[in-house]
Amino acid sequence: MQAITSIWFILALCFQLIATAGFIVFIVRQQKWVFRISYWILAAGFGFHTIFLGLRYYALGVAPVLDLKSALSFFSWSIIGVYLVIQSRFKLRVLGSFVAPLAAFFMTISSAVPVTETPVKPIFKSLWLTLHVGTVFVGDALLAISCLAAIMYLIQERQIKRKRFDTFYARLPSLATLDNINYYAILYGFPFLTLGMIVGSIYAHFALGVYWQWDPKEVWSLICWLLYAALIHERLAVGWQGRKAAIMSIVCFSVLIFSFLGVSLLMGGYHSFGNMGGR
Amino acid sequence: MPKIINIGMNHETAPVELRECLAVEAQNVHKALGLMRDLDVVREGFFLSTCNRVETLIVAEEVQEAKRAVVSLLSKIGSIPVNDFSPFLYTYQNMDAVTHIFKVASSLDSMVIGEPQILGQIKDAYLQSTRTKMSGVILNRLMHKAFHVAKRVRSETDICGAAVSISYAAVELARKIFHELEGKRVLLIGAGEMAELAARHLLTNGVSSMTVLNRTFERAVEVAERFRANPVSFDEMEEQLLKADIVLTSTAAKAYVITHAMIKKVLRKRRNRPLFLIDIAVPRDVEPKVNKLNNVYLYDIDDLNGVIEINKAQRLEEAVKAQRIVNEEVVKFEKWLKTLAVVPTIVSLREKAEAIILNEFGKSRSVLEQLSPQHQKGVEVLVRSIVEKMLNDPILFLKGKAGRSTLNEYLDTTRKLFSLDEGEESSGTNSITGNKPS
Questions:
Q1: How near does any CA of chain B get to the CA of A230, in Å?
Q2: HEC profile for chain A?
Q3: Which residues of chain A have a CB within 8 Å of the CB of B314?
Q4: Fewer CB atoms inside 10 Å of the end CB: C or N, chain B?
Q5: What is the ipTM of this complex?
Q6: In the CATH scheme, what is the homologous superfamily, with its name and number, of domain B3-156?
Q7: What is the pTM of this model?
C-alpha cells in the first residue's frame, strides 16, 4: 500500500514541478501553447494527487492531514484545486505563474519531510475532522490566492506609480482586476475559514468535551480570523482598496501561515503534529 | 526582361513643403495614373501619395527613359520644375524596389514605425491602379505580396504593440488601472489640442461620460458641444473631482489648479476609488506630490513622453525581426519573377509533360509488358509524338511573343493553365485571394 501511494505522490510532485517550470517559461515568453500545456500538466498532477489522497484516506480512515508531511501536501492540493476552479471562471493566464510555484513549494517541502507511520488514534477517525480540515483548507487556499493577487497588485502598482515599466508591466493584468481577485478570494475564503473553525469546535466538543480551550493553534487562528474580519470590514465600510488592502491581506496570510505551520511545530498543544500520533 | 522601378520621396529625404506640393488629392491619383498610362515606356504603374511620402512604382523595359518620364510626370503633377525636387528623390530598381515597397507596406519605413494607416493607404492606391487598368501581372503579384508581408509582420512581431503617442499612451495606462473604460467618467479641465485629442481617444475607447470644466463657462460650453459633454463652471471643481475617474488637465494657469490638499480631501469621500490624473499642461496644473497618495496616479507630459520613448525603442527592436520577414519574402518574390521568362517556362512545360509520360507508362507497365519489344517501342513513339504536337503550338506562340509588352500576361497564363507553379506556389495563390484589398 505504502509503495503504491508514494508512486502517486511522486507523480503528483513531478507534474507540479514540470507545470511550474512551464508557467515560468510562459510568463517570460508569453506563448499561449506553453500556458495550455502547463495548465493540463498541472491538472493531471492534481488528478494524481487526488488519487494519492483518496488512497490515503481509505487506508487511514480519516483525511490525511495528521502529520506535517500530509498537511503540506493537502494544502498544496487545495491551492491547486481552488486555482483550477478560479481559472475556469476568470481565464487569467498569468495567475498560474504565481499559484503553481507556491503549490510546488509546499509540495517539495512535504516530499522532503520523512514519512512517519504512526497508527491513527480512534478519536481522529471521525467525519467531523475531515469536515473541519476540508473547509479550513479550502478557505486557506482561497486566502493564499488572495495573497498572491495582492503581491501581483503591489508589483503592478509600483510600476505605474514609479513610471518605470519592466517586463512585468505588460504581463500583469490591470490594477482593478488584481484588486477584484484579492477581494473576492477573501470574500469567499473567509466564510470557509469561519465554517472550518465552527466545525472544529463542535468536533472538539464531541471529542474532548469542550468547545474552546485556548490551545495555541486556536488562539492564533482567532487572531487571524479577526484580522481578516477587520480587512473585510474596512473594505466594505470604509472602502479600502488597492495598496492598503493588498498589504493587509499579505500580513493576514503571513499570520495564517504561522498559525498553520509555526504554531503546530513550535508551540505544542493538541493541534501540534508532534502530539497527533503520540498521546 | 522588364524592370521594377520605384521612385519616391519620404519624410526623411524631402522637406514638408515639397511633399505638400506632391501630396495630391485622391482624385489626382487618378490623374497621375492617367498620365502614366499615356507614357509608352510604362507598362504597369502604381501611385501612392500620403502626407509623409510619395511613391511611384512602375514596370518598364527602358529603365533610363522610364525614370525620366516619371520624374517629369511628378513635376507636372506638383507644378514644380524638375531641378527643384530631383535631389530629394530616391530611386530603387528591381529587388531593391521590392524590398522598399514591402517595408513601406509593413510600416517599417514610416515616421512612426508600426503605425497602421499606411497599409490602408497602399490598398486604396492599388485599387485605383487596378481600376485604371495600370496594374498587370507583376504589380498585381507584388502588391498582394506586400499586403501579405504586412500581415505577417503585424502578426509575427510586436511592432504595433505599445502606444507611441500621448493620447494612446494615456488610454493604455487607463486600461492598466481600470481594466475597462466602460462606465468611467472623464473630467476635462481647460482645453488644448492635445488634451482634446486624448479626450477623444478615451471616448472612442468606451468612456461613458465626460464633463468639461473651464475658468470661463462660455468656453466650457463651447468645448463641451464638440464632445457632447456637460459643461460646468470652475466652482464645481471639488464636486467634479468626487465623480471623476480620469482627469485630463491642460490649462494655461501659472499656479497649480489641483493641489495635494484638494485631492486628499476628496479621497475619503470617493471611498478610495482609483483616480487617474493626466496633466498635459506646461507649467503643470497638478501638484506632483499628488502621485504619492494611495490609489491616485498622476502622469504629466514628461512622464507620458518617457513611456512613449520606451515603447519606441521596443518597436525598433521588433523592426529587426520584421526586416527578416521582409528579406524572406523578397527572396520568394525574386524566384517567382525569374520564372516570368520564356525559356524557364518552356523548360518547365517540357518537364511537366515528361513527368506525365513517365507516370502513365508506369501505371500501364503490366499491360505493356505483354507486348513484343517492337510494339512497346511503337507505343512510346506514338505517345511522345502526340505530346510533342500538343506542346508545339503553345511553345511557338510563347517564343513569338518574346520581347513584346504582353509577354508577361501570356507567361503567367501559361503557368496557370498548366499549373507549372504547383507545390510551393499553391500557398502563394491562396494568399493572393486571401489578401484582396477591401
A1: 17
A2: CHHHHHHHHHHHHHHHHHHHHHHHHHHHHCCHHHHHHHHHHHHHHHHHHHHHHHHHHHHHCCCCCCCHHHHHHHHHHHHHHHHHHHHHHHCCHHHHHHHHHHHHHHHHHHHHCCCCCCCCCHHHCCHHHHHHHHHHHHHHHHHHHHHHHHHHHHHHHHHHHHCCCCHHHHHCCCHHHHHHHHHHHHHHHHHHHHHHHHHHHHHHHHHHCCCCCCCHHHHHHHHHHHHHHHHHHHHHHHCCCCHHHHHHHHHHHHHHHHHHHHHHHHHCCCCCHHHHHHC
A3: none
A4: C
A5: 0.84
A6: Glutamyl-tRNA reductase, N-terminal domain (3.30.460.30)
A7: 0.73
